[in-house]
Amino acid sequence: MLDHKTLVLNRSWRPITTTSVRRAIVLMARGVAGAVHPNTFEVAEWETWVARGSTPLGTLRAVGFEFPVPEVIVLTAYNGFPELPVSFTRRNVYRRDGFLCVYCGQTPRVSDLTIDHVVPRSRGGDTSWLNCVSACIRCNARKADRTPAQAEMPLQRAPFVPRWPGGLDPRALAERPVWHRFMPAKTPGVTPGVTPGG
Description:
The protein has about 200 residues and is of the alpha+beta class. It has two domains: about 5-85 and about 165-180, no CATH class; about 90-150, DNA Binding (I), subunit A, CATH 1.10.30. About 20% of the residues lie in helices and about 20% in strands. The chain has a five-stranded mixed sheet. A hairpin with a 2-residue loop joins strand 5 (about 60) and strand 6.
């Protein structure tokens, strides 16, 4: 539970990152963040939050008291909005492309997905967001060491650098509906609610 994610908002209630529940508790204990009630949007400081009981994520038990797990915290002083690049990983390429093969449009099992270099490395292509796409094993083998034009396999979606609020991909947001209320209106797959304080 301590390693689960908590959404972090700046003082203007804009999502800026996520952190572990462990770190969120430390920030609250230091008085630099308050927990946001998932239904009323009230901000609770340490003592008030400890006294409130449980949350949908559950409760952590410590000697002498129980601590409700915060889903969202808001920082009391920091109002910046850092540009957080999304880590370039195989899994994040899959997430960006919706776990689809960009050549045939099918959704294979994750174990049957691969990373394809649009311009093959043997032809000078680099390993980057703009040159890597998700492809099923069959399409990757068919394309082989050719460009999409040479293989007559047009991309159904062009690769791009993802910009996810707080570094969160849309599929991760689906698992945390409370977070939707704090996401910008243009976040894919999210219908945000009213953001207090914004």
